[in-house]
Amino acid sequence: MVFVKWGMRNLTHSMCFRSGCRSLCSDAALEAISKASEDKVLYNYPSFSGAFSALFAHLFHTRHNLPCHILPFSSVPFLALRVEDLCIGGLETCYLLDFLPPKEFLFKLSHQSKCKVIGFDHRKAVLRHIPSPSECPEKVVINVNLEKSSSSVVYEYFASKLEDTKVSSGVVPSLVDSKEKGLVELMLKYIEDGDLR
Q1: Which of 67, 115, 129, 158 could form a disulfide with 60 if both were Cys (CB 3.0 to 4.6 A apart)?
Q2: Closest Cα partner for 9 from 162, 125, 131?
Q3: Which residue ranges make up each domain of the chain?
Q4: Phi then psi dihedrals of residue 194, to 5 deg
Q5: What is the mean predicted confidence (pLDDT) over 127-152?
Q6: What is the SS3 assignment for 111-168?
Q7: Which CATH number fits domain 3-195: 1.10.1200, 3.90.1640, 1.10.8, 1.10.3470?
Q8: Could you report the per-residue pLDDT of 16-51, keeping only the tens digit for each?
Q9: What is the sign, positive or negative, of the torsion defined by CA atoms of 104, 51, 194, 4?
Q10: Contact indicator for 14, 114 with CB cutoff of 8 Å
Q11: CA angle, corner 122, sides to 143 and 177, nearest 5?
């Protein structure tokens, strides 16, 4: 088993997909992204694990009535985001779900921003690209678990974070309804079987 988790530093962003000179985002979308100051959730696209990870982030933010901007992230070079596309003021947290960019990207992003970056991945190949704990900036947290899919780890992360929340009514909130928890866990097992082959 290999499980890696350590802190790194800051990150902030606004996002755009570019292809040469052409942008794959409309000007209106870019403007909305640049003005957004809430939490950002970037998920691996196209990926079931990435999409369901984004769903769990959405459910967490919805349960807390927190604003959150969820965006797909493609690792295809001509579609990939640049650090400059992601840096905006007022951003508090950026989640990287089911992917971790190269450490140069993380360092540049953390250097140019002021938010916390939390990344999740499950692929062995990512281990050679992530920085060692001694290299990591303070506000970057990397979660790599080779024994579970990213969506399972993200589900556990947000479920735990939600359960740690104190509610005035005394009722412990849940990420998913109890009657649907079994279905969600079955779906996560299905994704995990495909991801970890």
Answers
A1: 158
A2: 131
A3: 3-195
A4: -75, -40
A5: 89
A6: HCCCCEEEEEECCHHHHHCCCCCCCCCCCEEEEEECCCCHHHHHHHHHHHHHHCCCCC
A7: 3.90.1640
A8: 333 333 344 556 656 666 766 677 788 888 889 999
A9: positive
A10: no
A11: 80
Closest CA to 106 of 89, 126, 124: 126
User: Which residue in 66, 134, 167, 133 sits closest to 142, CA to CA?
Assistant: 133
Q: Would you mind telling me the total number of residues written for the chain in this entry?
A: 197
The answer to whether the beta carbons of residues 69 and 39 sit under 8 Å apart is: yes
Q: Which two tokens stand for residue 14?
A: 């606004």
What value does the mean pLDDT take over residues 47-74?
A: 89
- Tokens 């412990």, located at residue: 172
d(CA 120, CA 82): 19
Sequence letter at residue 145: N
Residue linked to tokens 């140019």: 112
